């Protein structure tokens, strides 16, 4: 049994906390939001995010950060939404002992620095060992024990195997990988593509459009990942095409749902207000575009999403621009023997 603390009690953090408690670990669930701490303590249920799913009695809910991270914890899980990762890391850094293991389960890229979330945590808590968990895994389904498969990425094999052993059970399968960067990029940029998929659905497009978007979307993500030094095969795996498929097609996806509303005519802010959760793709869209420019990589779907979100172009106009781009070979490196 390990002692594990979660920093962030949203739907994903709560779902994973329930999973680990059922795996027999001693779990502490921390939130900075007083109302959330009160709700979870009194009702033992995230009524608005995970209705009907009860917290095991063994989970300790707290708003005290010192209580959450001190006292010999074996693992700290960063489960705050991506816009709050740096602030939380800064707040907790002085309480983290050298060599402490941290796994980040949020997905995003910081717009100003273009850093991944693991890079942010490493910068703010340099004394810690930082890993990532990602994959096609909606909190609503994980909390109910729906069979799910994810991947953990760590800089050393021992840490990856520890995470695999900690999280894995007969309903939650965990693979390991050394490609932390690739896992993070896939998990972050797929949210931008999922916004586009939602927009297509909002416009009334069909299955053909969705399939094309997913296929060309993973091509863009892979192209950028390779340019940044990630492994190409990572994007054919759980944190790449797997996560992209589930986020582009599921009604659980806040990114798809926000995109759908935008396709129906909502403004970006109105769509985010309606979804009532952090829409990670909105925060990652500008960063993904900047990374494409930095590494001189073509990412037309990402560019199109930025045009809709931040430049005032209509979704119909951007779709037309994408469909009428210059003709090209699907894979430029492939040619004919002439």
Structure notes:
It contains 15 helices and eight strands. With 338 residues, it is α/β, with parallel strands linked by helices. An eight-stranded mixed sheet has the order 3-2-1-4-5-6-7-8, with helices on both faces. Strand 5 (101-104), helix 5 and strand 6 form a beta-alpha-beta unit. Helix 8 runs antiparallel to helix 9, helix 9 (207-228) packs antiparallel against helix 10 (238-249) and helix 13 (280-294) crosses helix 14 (300-310).
What is the distance, rounded to the nearest whole angstrom, between the alpha carbons of the first and last residues? 64 Å
Order of helices and strands: EHEHEHEHEHEHEHEHHHHHHHH
User: What helical percentage do the residues reach?
Assistant: 40-55%
Shape: globular
Number of strands: 8
Structural class: alpha/beta
Q: What is the count of DSSP helices, taking H or I runs of 4+ residues? A: 15
Describe the strand arrangement of the main beta sheet, using strand numbers. 3-2-1-4-5-6-7-8
Q: What fraction of the residues are assigned to beta strands by DSSP?
A: 5-15%
Mean pLDDT: 94
Largest sheet, described in full?
A: 8 strands, mixed
Query: Which regions have little confidence, pLDDT < 50, spanning 5+ residues?
Result: none
* Rg, alpha carbons: 20 Å
């Amino acid at each position: 049994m390990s002692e594990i603390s979660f920093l962030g009690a949203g739907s994903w953090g709560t779902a994973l906390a329930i999973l680990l408690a059922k795996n027999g670990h001693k779990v502490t669930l921390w939130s900075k939001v007083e109302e959330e701490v009160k709700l979870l303590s009194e009702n033992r249920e995230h009524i608005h995010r995970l209705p009907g799913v009860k917290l095991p009695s063994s989970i300790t809910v707290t708003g005290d950060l010192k209580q959450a991270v001190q006292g010999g914890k074996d693992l700290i899980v960063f489960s705050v939404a991506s816009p709050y990762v740096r602030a939380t890391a800064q707040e907790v850094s002085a309480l983290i002992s050298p060599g402490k293991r941290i796994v980040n389960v949020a997905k995003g890229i910081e717009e100003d620095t273009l850093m991944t979330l693991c890079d942010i945590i490493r910068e703010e808590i340099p004394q810690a060992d930082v890993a990532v968990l990602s994959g096609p895994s909606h909190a609503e389904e994980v909390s109910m024990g729906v069979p799910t498969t994810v991947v953990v990425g760590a800089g050393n094999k021992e840490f990856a195997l520890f995470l695999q052993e900690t999280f894995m059970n007969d309903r939650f399968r965990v693979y390991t990988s050394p490609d932390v960067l690739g896992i993070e990029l896939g998990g972050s940029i797929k949210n931008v593509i999922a916004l586009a998929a939602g927009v297509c659905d909002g416009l009334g497009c069909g299955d053909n459009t969705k399939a094309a978007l997913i296929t060309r979307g993973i091509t863009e993500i892979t192209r950028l990942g390779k340019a940044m030094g990630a492994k190409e095969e990572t994007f054919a795996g759980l944190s790449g095409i797997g996560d992209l498929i589930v986020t582009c097609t599921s009604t659980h996806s806040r990114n798809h749902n926000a995109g759908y509303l935008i396709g129906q005519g909502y403004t970006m802010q109105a769509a985010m207000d309606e979804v009532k959760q952090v829409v990670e793709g909105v925060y990652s869209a500008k960063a993904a575009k900047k990374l494409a420019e930095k590494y001189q990589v073509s990412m037309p779907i990402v560019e199109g999403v930025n045009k809709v979100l931040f430049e005032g172009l209509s979704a119909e106009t951007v779709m037309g621009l994408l469909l009428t781009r210059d003709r090209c070979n699907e894979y430029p490196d492939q040619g004919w023997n002439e």
